[in-house]
């Protein structure tokens, strides 16, 4: 096991096929963020997502690169920043310098999505692209060669604890087909309302990475139970989905 702060750059890729469980730190006690991210690693999450919000692109304000940097030395888990901001380009380098392995840019947040994603790769980090509920999956088709992750939001971004939008499952099926056509390893991530009663149909629709906050932090049996339960439900559903002829997933 790596010591805190020694980064596992592609740990998630080294794991066997199956669902990836990602922690959103939105519900975390930010006064104890170091302890919280260490506890998330202990609980077995695959990586950690920082929800960066600017009270402009979304109606909430959270944290930026300095908070991410403060958390970095407390865990060896990979970090990703989801930039829910109106000017993502100014935060790409600072988030990478703060210790993010991946930076996710919303397709709706930049005038030149292709250039923004290229900048992430040029800095040696992994790029992800996110789409809000009203944005079609086709919005990412021309940047799939630049990303290793597509994030389909299953709530309108801005807050944790919202109700899962089942209507996003049709978009997930489209996104899964687009990824299959790209012929390269691209994660299909979902975020918002992911819980025991929503994760299985989400996985059957094509998702393989599941971001969760409320379920993880509020499980009465603890975070490790939440991780194990969600991963088991999603992995079983993913295999069922393949068995039923769903779009093939990369191994
Ligand atoms: C929305 C946030 C939330 C958070 C997870 O902008 O990104 O989706 O990460 O929230 P829960 O798991 O509480 O729905």
CATH topology (level 3) name: TIM Barrel
Q: Extract low-pLDDT stretches.
A: 1-9, 243-248
Shape: globular
H/I helix tally: 9
Ligand names: D-xylitol-5-phosphate
**Reading side by side through the largest sheet, how are the strands ordered?**
1-2-3-4-5-6-7-8
Q: Can you count the beta strands?
A: 8
CATH architecture: Alpha-Beta Barrel
Terminal CA distance = 25 Å
Structural class: alpha/beta
Q: What does this 3D model show about the protein?
A:
There is one protein chain. The protein is of the alpha/beta class. The chain has a single domain (19-243), classed as Aldolase class I (TIM Barrel, Alpha-Beta Barrel), CATH 3.20.20. The chain is built from nine helices and eight strands. Strands 1-2-3-4-5-6-7-8 form an eight-stranded parallel barrel, surrounded by five helices. Helix 4 (89-97) links the parallel strand 3 (79-84) and strand 4. Helix 2 packs across helix 9. It is globular, with a radius of gyration of 16 Å. Bound molecules: D-xylitol-5-phosphate (DX5).
Key structural traits:
251 residues; alpha/beta; TIM Barrel; 8-stranded parallel barrel; 9 helices; 8 strands; disordered N terminus
